[in-house]
Amino acid sequence: MKTIIAAAFLAVLAVPGFAQPTSAAPPHANALVEFPAKGSAKLTVTTPAFKDGGDIPYENTQYRTNTFPGLVWTAGPSGTKSYAVIMQDTGGTMRDGYPILHWTLWNIPANVTKLDAGMPATGNPAGSSYGPNARGAAQPYMGPRTPAGPKHPYHLQVFALDTTIPVDAAATYVSLTGAMKDHILASGAVVGLGSVDPTAPPPRPAQ
Predict the structure, then answer these.
(1) pTM value?
(2) What gap in Å lies between CA 53 and CA 55, rounded to an integer?
């Protein structure tokens, strides 16, 4: 546990805007576990960039081009009005005890089940909006920057909702998931493993 927290601490310091992780707050599970779908209905989620449980290419990380890997999922059940996507690193926690939040996208239209690889920051589907990540509100895709040590699992989770999310409910992870939790018809995830890029320069020493 100490190794995981220390690794997460180094990752946080490498990216401005991250809060420092701590063991003071009780850890939370990732969103898929903490907010299960009604009846445990499943979505099948894939990405063209890597297989479930496989290594995330460095091009999809902050170490290189931070390119969005693409995401595809099966259609939600009858009554689906929108989708939300939450990307979390469960290899470390923030000071609030939640897994490190990398990316959220909400109010994806019900007829959209694919996000293209390389999607630019302004290229999200019409009607959808970027939500919070560890840097703040309304942030585009932020790929892994895994520190040296064990690989971290990054969960790209998709939720089929029977509602749309109000704008004022999407400012933080807690408010976003609070607006989602009683409206999840189905969910699923693809998990990729992140590791330090061996070609990356060493981190600068602390000042």
Answers:
(1) 0.87
(2) 7
